[in-house]
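Before going further, learn to read the protein records used in this course. Taken together, the tokens spell out the fold as the letters spell out the chain. A record is reproduced here so that you can trace the correspondence yourselves:

***
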Amino acid sequence: MIFVSAFLTGVLLVVLTSYLIKTPEEQANEFIEELKAGTISDDSVENKREELEAFIKFPETKELDQTRMIIDSAEDVDNGYEVRARFQAYEYKDEGSEVIESYDGDLYIIMKKVGFRDWDIIDVRINPYE
């Protein structure tokens, strides 16, 4: 009985901890979703708003059929964390699944932790689609 209660307490602790702490990858995903929705309210990227919006809307502007986003694990840098989000967009032949052109771009989000679930975006860098 003691083992069962210890196990359940451990599981509960893990669940609560994962709910209370937001990872840098989760913050990066939230930032990207806000960017896609046009609801970015972070002052640190205000001067890059047009560049960021153009990057996010690139597949739509080029009328590409499919886009894929992969968020890599955060890397510890100087006074924060850097998360790389890789974007891939594809152009297909008219009637088939053959890829004519592939475009890749990267978005680097540098942030620092200011609370359990709070992060400040310090900087954002773009490697444009190629």
Residues 21 and 115 are 9 Å apart (CA to CA).
